[in-house]
Protein backbone atom coordinates (compact mmCIF):
# COMPACT_ATOMS: atom_id res chain seq x y z
CA UNK A 1 0.00 0.00 0.00
CA UNK A 2 1.43 3.34 -1.02
CA UNK A 3 1.60 6.08 1.58
CA UNK A 4 -0.12 8.59 -0.63
CA UNK A 5 -3.62 9.07 -1.98
CA UNK A 6 -4.62 10.89 -5.13
CA UNK A 7 -6.42 14.16 -4.46
CA UNK A 8 -8.65 15.35 -7.30
CA UNK A 9 -9.19 19.12 -7.65
CA UNK A 10 -11.18 19.34 -10.82
CA UNK A 11 -12.12 17.81 -14.11
CA UNK A 12 -11.00 19.78 -17.14
CA UNK A 13 -11.02 20.03 -20.89
CA UNK A 14 -8.02 20.97 -22.97
CA UNK A 15 -5.31 21.43 -20.36
CA UNK A 16 -1.76 20.52 -21.41
CA UNK A 17 0.40 18.68 -18.88
CA UNK A 18 2.91 21.50 -19.21
CA UNK A 19 0.40 24.01 -17.93
CA UNK A 20 0.19 22.49 -14.48
CA UNK A 21 3.96 22.33 -14.10
CA UNK A 22 5.16 24.26 -11.10
CA UNK A 23 1.67 24.46 -9.63
CA UNK A 24 1.53 23.45 -5.98
CA UNK A 25 -1.48 21.87 -4.35
CA UNK A 26 -2.68 20.66 -0.96
CA UNK A 27 0.15 19.90 1.44
CA UNK A 28 2.67 21.29 -1.05
CA UNK A 29 2.19 18.41 -3.52
CA UNK A 30 3.03 18.93 -7.19
CA UNK A 31 -0.05 19.21 -9.36
CA UNK A 32 -0.35 16.67 -12.17
CA UNK A 33 -2.72 15.90 -14.97
CA UNK A 34 -4.37 12.52 -15.50
CA UNK A 35 -5.88 12.23 -18.94
CA UNK A 36 -8.17 9.80 -20.57
CA UNK A 37 -9.50 10.69 -23.98
CA UNK A 38 -11.52 13.85 -23.62
CA UNK A 39 -11.68 14.57 -19.93
CA UNK A 40 -8.70 15.13 -17.67
CA UNK A 41 -8.41 15.16 -13.89
CA UNK A 42 -6.23 17.69 -12.09
CA UNK A 43 -4.62 15.84 -9.20
CA UNK A 44 -1.79 15.77 -6.70
CA UNK A 45 -0.51 13.26 -4.17
CA UNK A 46 -1.49 13.78 -0.57
CA UNK A 47 -0.39 12.08 2.59
CA UNK A 48 -2.43 8.94 3.13
CA UNK A 49 -2.36 9.21 6.89
CA UNK A 50 -3.75 12.72 6.70
CA UNK A 51 -6.57 11.90 4.32
CA UNK A 52 -7.71 8.55 5.64
CA UNK A 53 -11.33 8.50 6.68
CA UNK A 54 -10.89 8.77 10.43
CA UNK A 55 -8.12 11.33 10.26
CA UNK A 56 -9.95 13.35 7.66
CA UNK A 57 -13.09 13.61 9.72
CA UNK A 58 -11.06 15.03 12.56
CA UNK A 59 -9.08 17.34 10.32
CA UNK A 60 -12.24 18.85 8.94
CA UNK A 61 -12.99 20.11 12.41
CA UNK A 62 -9.65 21.83 12.59
CA UNK A 63 -10.11 25.35 11.31
CA UNK A 64 -6.45 25.89 10.59
CA UNK A 65 -6.17 22.71 8.50
CA UNK A 66 -9.48 23.40 6.81
CA UNK A 67 -8.36 26.92 5.90
CA UNK A 68 -5.01 25.81 4.51
CA UNK A 69 -6.56 22.96 2.53
CA UNK A 70 -9.39 25.08 1.16
CA UNK A 71 -6.97 27.81 0.06
CA UNK A 72 -4.61 25.32 -1.59
CA UNK A 73 -7.53 23.68 -3.38
CA UNK A 74 -8.83 27.05 -4.50
CA UNK A 75 -5.41 28.15 -5.71
CA UNK A 76 -5.13 25.18 -8.07
CA UNK A 77 -8.68 25.38 -9.40
CA UNK A 78 -8.70 29.14 -9.74
CA UNK A 79 -5.34 29.25 -11.51
CA UNK A 80 -6.38 26.71 -14.12
CA UNK A 81 -9.92 28.07 -14.36
CA UNK A 82 -8.45 31.32 -15.60
CA UNK A 83 -7.83 29.96 -19.09
CA UNK A 84 -9.56 26.61 -19.08
CA UNK A 85 -12.88 24.96 -18.70
CA UNK A 86 -12.85 23.31 -15.29
CA UNK A 87 -15.41 21.51 -13.17
CA UNK A 88 -14.13 21.94 -9.61
CA UNK A 89 -14.79 19.15 -7.13
CA UNK A 90 -15.64 19.27 -3.46
CA UNK A 91 -12.90 19.68 -0.90
CA UNK A 92 -10.96 16.49 -0.13
CA UNK A 93 -12.12 14.32 -3.02
CA UNK A 94 -9.51 11.57 -2.79
CA UNK A 95 -8.90 8.22 -4.47
CA UNK A 96 -6.64 5.34 -3.51
CA UNK A 97 -4.39 5.88 -6.52
CA UNK A 98 -4.13 7.27 -10.05
CA UNK A 99 -5.52 4.08 -11.52
CA UNK A 100 -8.73 4.50 -9.59
CA UNK A 101 -9.10 8.05 -10.92
CA UNK A 102 -8.47 6.89 -14.49
CA UNK A 103 -11.03 4.14 -14.07
CA UNK A 104 -13.66 6.56 -12.77
CA UNK A 105 -12.89 8.98 -15.62
CA UNK A 106 -13.25 6.29 -18.24
CA UNK A 107 -16.42 4.94 -16.67
CA UNK A 108 -18.18 8.31 -16.54
CA UNK A 109 -16.66 10.03 -19.52
CA UNK A 110 -19.96 11.00 -21.11
CA UNK A 111 -21.46 12.34 -17.91
CA UNK A 112 -18.33 14.38 -17.18
CA UNK A 113 -18.22 15.76 -20.70
CA UNK A 114 -21.82 16.83 -20.30
CA UNK A 115 -21.01 18.59 -17.03
CA UNK A 116 -18.09 20.43 -18.62
CA UNK A 117 -20.13 21.39 -21.68
CA UNK A 118 -22.75 22.88 -19.46
CA UNK A 119 -20.14 25.08 -17.80
CA UNK A 120 -18.58 26.36 -21.01
CA UNK A 121 -18.75 30.13 -21.36
CA UNK A 122 -20.26 30.50 -17.94
CA UNK A 123 -19.04 31.61 -14.55
CA UNK A 124 -20.44 31.52 -11.06
CA UNK A 125 -21.54 34.58 -9.13
CA UNK A 126 -22.61 34.69 -5.52
CA UNK A 127 -25.38 36.81 -4.06
CA UNK A 128 -25.70 37.40 -0.35
CA UNK A 129 -28.66 39.39 0.83
CA UNK A 130 -28.95 40.85 4.32
CA UNK A 131 -31.96 42.34 6.06
CA UNK A 132 -31.30 45.97 6.81
CA UNK A 133 -31.60 46.38 10.54
CA UNK A 134 -34.70 48.26 11.58
CA UNK A 135 -36.01 47.86 8.06
CA UNK A 136 -36.13 51.65 7.63
CA UNK A 137 -38.36 52.09 10.68
CA UNK A 138 -35.56 53.36 12.87
CA UNK A 139 -35.21 52.50 16.53
CA UNK A 140 -37.18 55.33 18.08
CA UNK A 141 -38.27 52.98 20.85
CA UNK A 142 -34.84 53.25 22.40
CA UNK A 143 -35.24 56.94 23.03
CA UNK A 144 -38.13 56.92 25.48
CA UNK A 145 -37.21 55.30 28.78
CA UNK A 146 -39.93 52.92 30.03
CA UNK A 147 -41.53 54.11 33.22
CA UNK A 148 -42.59 50.68 34.43
CA UNK A 149 -41.85 47.04 33.96
CA UNK A 150 -45.12 46.51 32.12
CA UNK A 151 -44.32 49.36 29.77
CA UNK A 152 -40.88 47.90 29.18
CA UNK A 153 -42.35 44.51 28.32
CA UNK A 154 -44.90 46.09 25.99
CA UNK A 155 -42.15 47.98 24.19
CA UNK A 156 -40.00 44.87 24.05
CA UNK A 157 -42.80 42.79 22.54
CA UNK A 158 -43.50 45.51 20.01
CA UNK A 159 -39.83 45.64 19.02
CA UNK A 160 -39.72 41.88 18.58
CA UNK A 161 -42.84 41.93 16.46
CA UNK A 162 -41.41 44.66 14.31
CA UNK A 163 -38.12 42.89 13.79
CA UNK A 164 -40.01 39.74 12.77
CA UNK A 165 -42.03 41.78 10.29
CA UNK A 166 -38.93 43.44 8.91
CA UNK A 167 -37.25 40.04 8.50
CA UNK A 168 -40.29 38.81 6.60
CA UNK A 169 -40.18 41.94 4.45
CA UNK A 170 -36.50 41.36 3.81
CA UNK A 171 -37.10 37.76 2.80
CA UNK A 172 -39.78 38.90 0.42
CA UNK A 173 -37.49 41.51 -1.10
CA UNK A 174 -34.73 38.91 -1.39
CA UNK A 175 -37.06 36.67 -3.36
CA UNK A 176 -37.68 39.54 -5.74
CA UNK A 177 -33.97 40.03 -6.31
CA UNK A 178 -33.53 36.29 -6.71
CA UNK A 179 -36.31 36.07 -9.29
CA UNK A 180 -34.74 38.87 -11.32
CA UNK A 181 -31.24 37.37 -11.23
CA UNK A 182 -32.58 33.90 -11.97
CA UNK A 183 -33.89 35.24 -15.27
CA UNK A 184 -30.31 36.01 -16.28
CA UNK A 185 -28.90 32.77 -14.98
CA UNK A 186 -28.48 29.35 -16.53
CA UNK A 187 -28.73 27.71 -13.12
CA UNK A 188 -29.22 28.62 -9.47
CA UNK A 189 -28.12 26.93 -6.31
CA UNK A 190 -28.80 27.91 -2.74
CA UNK A 191 -26.17 27.69 -0.02
CA UNK A 192 -26.83 27.65 3.68
CA UNK A 193 -27.32 31.02 5.28
CA UNK A 194 -24.21 32.22 7.00
CA UNK A 195 -24.43 32.76 10.71
CA UNK A 196 -23.66 36.33 11.78
CA UNK A 197 -20.56 35.00 13.54
CA UNK A 198 -19.26 33.77 10.20
CA UNK A 199 -20.44 36.52 7.89
CA UNK A 200 -19.08 39.18 10.21
CA UNK A 201 -22.21 41.19 9.50
CA UNK A 202 -24.56 42.28 12.22
CA UNK A 203 -27.47 42.27 9.78
CA UNK A 204 -29.07 38.84 9.45
CA UNK A 205 -28.55 37.07 6.12
CA UNK A 206 -31.76 36.15 4.35
CA UNK A 207 -30.39 34.70 1.11
CA UNK A 208 -27.15 33.04 0.02
CA UNK A 209 -27.30 31.87 -3.57
CA UNK A 210 -24.94 31.00 -6.37
CA UNK A 211 -25.84 31.68 -9.99
CA UNK A 212 -24.29 30.23 -13.11
CA UNK A 213 -24.22 33.09 -15.58
CA UNK A 214 -23.20 33.31 -19.22
CA UNK A 215 -20.15 35.58 -19.04
CA UNK A 216 -21.64 38.06 -21.49
CA UNK A 217 -24.51 38.78 -19.11
CA UNK A 218 -22.30 40.10 -16.35
CA UNK A 219 -23.13 43.69 -17.22
CA UNK A 220 -26.81 42.93 -16.84
CA UNK A 221 -26.16 41.42 -13.44
CA UNK A 222 -24.18 44.48 -12.48
CA UNK A 223 -26.99 46.81 -13.54
CA UNK A 224 -29.60 44.71 -11.81
CA UNK A 225 -27.75 44.60 -8.50
CA UNK A 226 -27.10 48.33 -8.71
CA UNK A 227 -30.84 48.91 -9.08
CA UNK A 228 -31.32 47.36 -5.63
CA UNK A 229 -28.58 49.41 -4.02
CA UNK A 230 -30.94 51.73 -2.16
CA UNK A 231 -33.51 49.15 -1.24
CA UNK A 232 -34.90 50.05 2.19
CA UNK A 233 -35.31 46.47 3.37
CA UNK A 234 -32.26 44.62 2.09
CA UNK A 235 -28.58 45.00 1.31
CA UNK A 236 -27.30 42.97 -1.63
CA UNK A 237 -23.71 41.78 -1.82
CA UNK A 238 -22.14 40.19 -4.89
CA UNK A 239 -19.11 37.90 -5.04
CA UNK A 240 -17.45 36.51 -8.13
CA UNK A 241 -16.71 35.57 -10.73
CA UNK A 242 -15.95 32.19 -9.20
CA UNK A 243 -14.93 29.04 -10.97
CA UNK A 244 -18.24 27.15 -11.09
CA UNK A 245 -17.88 25.42 -7.73
CA UNK A 246 -21.59 25.19 -7.13
CA UNK A 247 -22.44 23.80 -10.53
CA UNK A 248 -20.06 20.92 -11.17
CA UNK A 249 -22.84 18.41 -10.86
CA UNK A 250 -23.84 15.57 -13.08
CA UNK A 251 -27.48 15.48 -14.05
CA UNK A 252 -27.68 11.81 -13.19
CA UNK A 253 -25.56 10.69 -10.27
CA UNK A 254 -22.09 9.63 -11.36
CA UNK A 255 -20.11 7.50 -8.98
CA UNK B 1 -14.00 36.02 -20.61
CA UNK B 2 -14.69 39.62 -21.33
CA UNK B 3 -13.01 42.48 -19.61
CA UNK B 4 -12.16 41.25 -16.13
CA UNK B 5 -11.03 44.15 -14.06
CA UNK B 6 -13.55 46.59 -15.47
CA UNK B 7 -16.74 47.79 -13.89
CA UNK B 8 -17.99 47.91 -10.35
CA UNK B 9 -18.41 44.28 -9.50
CA UNK B 10 -14.78 43.43 -9.97
CA UNK B 11 -13.42 45.24 -6.92
CA UNK B 12 -15.66 43.01 -4.84
CA UNK B 13 -14.80 40.08 -6.99
CA UNK B 14 -12.42 37.92 -5.17
CA UNK B 15 -11.78 34.89 -7.18
CA UNK B 16 -11.24 33.99 -10.80
CA UNK B 17 -8.79 36.36 -12.45
CA UNK B 18 -8.24 38.31 -9.27
CA UNK B 19 -5.49 38.34 -6.71
CA UNK B 20 -7.77 39.52 -3.98
CA UNK B 21 -8.45 37.33 -1.03
CA UNK B 22 -11.56 35.23 -1.11
CA UNK B 23 -13.65 35.30 2.04
CA UNK B 24 -13.01 31.92 3.59
CA UNK B 25 -16.63 31.44 4.53
CA UNK B 26 -17.78 32.02 0.95
CA UNK B 27 -15.17 29.60 -0.33
CA UNK B 28 -16.18 26.95 2.19
CA UNK B 29 -19.85 27.39 1.26
CA UNK B 30 -18.79 26.14 -2.14
CA UNK B 31 -16.16 23.58 -1.24
CA UNK B 32 -18.30 21.87 1.37
CA UNK B 33 -21.58 21.89 -0.51
CA UNK B 34 -22.54 18.35 -1.36
CA UNK B 35 -23.69 16.93 -4.65
CA UNK B 36 -20.54 17.26 -6.71
CA UNK B 37 -19.39 15.11 -9.58
CA UNK B 38 -17.17 12.57 -7.85
CA UNK B 39 -17.68 10.72 -4.62
CA UNK B 40 -14.07 9.67 -4.02
CA UNK B 41 -12.79 6.48 -2.42
CA UNK B 42 -12.63 8.04 1.00
CA UNK B 43 -16.19 8.87 1.83
CA UNK B 44 -16.80 11.54 4.38
CA UNK B 45 -19.72 13.79 4.97
CA UNK B 46 -18.79 17.36 4.19
CA UNK B 47 -22.38 18.43 4.75
CA UNK B 48 -21.97 17.76 8.44
CA UNK B 49 -19.12 20.20 8.84
CA UNK B 50 -20.46 22.93 11.08
CA UNK B 51 -18.42 26.09 10.64
CA UNK B 52 -20.03 27.93 13.51
CA UNK B 53 -19.09 25.17 15.89
CA UNK B 54 -15.58 24.96 14.49
CA UNK B 55 -15.01 28.66 14.62
CA UNK B 56 -16.32 28.89 18.16
CA UNK B 57 -13.96 26.12 19.14
CA UNK B 58 -11.17 27.91 17.33
CA UNK B 59 -12.00 31.02 19.33
CA UNK B 60 -11.87 29.07 22.55
CA UNK B 61 -8.58 27.49 21.55
CA UNK B 62 -7.08 30.81 20.58
CA UNK B 63 -8.13 32.36 23.86
CA UNK B 64 -6.89 29.52 26.01
CA UNK B 65 -3.12 30.12 25.71
CA UNK B 66 -3.52 33.54 27.33
CA UNK B 67 -3.93 31.68 30.58
CA UNK B 68 -0.36 31.05 31.59
CA UNK B 69 0.64 27.48 32.33
CA UNK B 70 0.21 26.75 35.95
CA UNK B 71 -2.20 29.58 36.56
CA UNK B 72 -5.25 27.36 36.58
CA UNK B 73 -3.61 24.85 38.84
CA UNK B 74 -2.41 27.58 41.14
CA UNK B 75 -5.87 29.09 41.28
CA UNK B 76 -7.45 25.71 42.02
CA UNK B 77 -4.93 25.16 44.77
CA UNK B 78 -5.63 28.57 46.23
CA UNK B 79 -9.37 27.95 46.10
CA UNK B 80 -8.90 24.67 47.84
CA UNK B 81 -6.80 26.28 50.53
CA UNK B 82 -9.32 29.04 51.05
CA UNK B 83 -12.38 26.81 51.19
CA UNK B 84 -10.76 23.93 53.01
CA UNK B 85 -8.73 25.59 55.68
CA UNK B 86 -9.97 29.15 55.52
From TrEMBL, chain A:
Q: Does the keyword Protein transport apply?
A: no
* UniProt record, GO biological process: gas vesicle organization
Instruction: Quote the subcellular location field of this record.
Output: Gas vesicle
Q: Which GO terms describe its cellular component?
A: gas vesicle
Q: Which domain of life is it from?
A: Bacteria
- What are the UniProt keywords, alphabetically? Gas vesicle
Query: Where does it mainly reside?
Result: other
| Classification via Pfam families | GvpL_GvpF
What does the sequence similarity comment in the record state about its family? Belongs to the gas vesicle GvpF/GvpL family.
Task: Identify this protein by name.
Answer: Gas vesicle protein GvpL/GvpF
Q: What is the lineage of its organism?
A: Bacteria, Bacillati, Actinomycetota, Actinomycetes, Pseudonocardiales
Automatic annotation (TrEMBL), chain B:
Name the Pfam families on file.
Answer: Gas_vesicle (PF00741)
Tell me if Signal is a UniProt keyword of this record: no
Compartment(s): Gas vesicle
Please give an example of a GO cellular component term from this record. gas vesicle
Q: Which GO terms describe its molecular function?
A: structural molecule activity
This protein's major location comes to: other
Sorted alphabetically, which keywords does the UniProt record give?
Gas vesicle
> Nucleus: present as a keyword of the record?
no
Family from the record: Belongs to the gas vesicle GvpA family.
Q: What is this protein called?
A: Gas vesicle protein GvpA/GvpJ/GvpM family
What are the top taxonomic ranks of the organism? Bacteria, Bacillati, Actinomycetota, Actinomycetes, Pseudonocardiales
Amino acid sequence: MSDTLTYVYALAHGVDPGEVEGLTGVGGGAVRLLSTDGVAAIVSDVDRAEFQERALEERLEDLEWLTATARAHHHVVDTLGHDHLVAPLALATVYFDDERVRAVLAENRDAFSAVLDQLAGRAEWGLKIYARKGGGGGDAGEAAKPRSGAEYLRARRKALRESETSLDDAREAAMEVDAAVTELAAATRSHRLQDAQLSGQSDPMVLNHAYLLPVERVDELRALVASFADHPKVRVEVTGPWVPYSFAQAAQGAS
Amino acid sequence: MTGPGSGELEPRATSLFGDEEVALVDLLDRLLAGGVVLAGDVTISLAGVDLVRISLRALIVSIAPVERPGTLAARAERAELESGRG
